[in-house]
């Protein structure tokens, strides 16, 4: 099993290119099976989750080909199956996206209950209730969700919470449903907008994406197309935090600053100096930062996927900061590992109260999930001595070439197999 070893104390300096968005690529790759012809998706990151979703599509008979560094060609004309097996779905929650697509394209779907990071209970009720409104009948058999629909018919659907996953699944089913669908209290994330833009390029009729109501008028068929995925806002935010904590100076290229407004505002509130361009962010680290309060919210609020990274930053920010997690109930598992490095963090309900310390010290720590993994690396970048992070396979799910990118910025970091 691989480990990542970090020797802290070196400011990050230079330029870093942000990869395509994982959370946009996955639903777009699935959506491509709705078309009658082939699609080419550009700017797709080389990640384990991407490979997993492509393997799921292959089990359904879809032809998938990787072209070059970041292009994937999907040919759904060979689609013949309707079952997404446990061995693949157990490793990644986003595999559930095939549910809505298969119901729209084949009228039935059998999908194993999904897995992923252990950051809390993530029930599928909103997905199933929304699809049931469109005419799907579900049963649970031997750990599989089995859905059938003779015909999908558009309806008004209200989501109790603006779930990104549920919004995706309903969109994928509704674009080929008969009549009109309104998704109210829909997720507003940039990844939802990107999916809508891709579907519209295929011929779907969608409006309102990026707001809390998405209107969809079903069409009889969709055509293949080419499309470029947006940059990954969480990767960009992670490098911002890494630069701030090391008091570095970096330029983040190929990003969308407008997708990082909540993150940028919080960093500036703490005292960081940022210059924003149309597709770049330049950051100059400051010697002194101010404590702050962070509350995670659905987009456009502060993203839960940046919570762990910010907690790492606040461990060495003078004063008392408070981070409250409102999205996932079990997303403070990185706290105990940061405490091993000398952090002073007290948990009270859904909040972490952080007393900034002057220094962290390198230690042996263990990653518990994707974002916790990068948070421990960020802490290691500023800690004295050597930090060894185990269970780093989580990183392969969401960060493309992280070690190489950090090395180019001057970090003393390597990945090696444990003995």
Describe this structure in words.
The protein has 419 residues and is an alpha/beta fold. Helix content is 30%, strand content 26%. The chain is built from 13 helices and 24 strands. A four-stranded mixed β-sheet has the order 22-23-1-24, covered by helices on one side. Helix 12 links the parallel strand 22 and strand 23.
- What's the Cα radius of gyration? 21 Å
Structural class: alpha/beta
The largest sheet is:
4 strands, mixed
Q: How many β-strand stretches?
A: 24
Q: What value does the average pLDDT take?
A: 93
How does the overall form come out from the CA principal axes? elongated
How much β-strand is present in the residues? Answer: 25-35%
Distance between the termini: 8 Å
Number of helices: 13
Helical percentage: 25-40%
Q: What is the topology, as strand order, of the major beta sheet?
A: 22-23-1-24
Q: Give the low-pLDDT segments.
A: 115-122
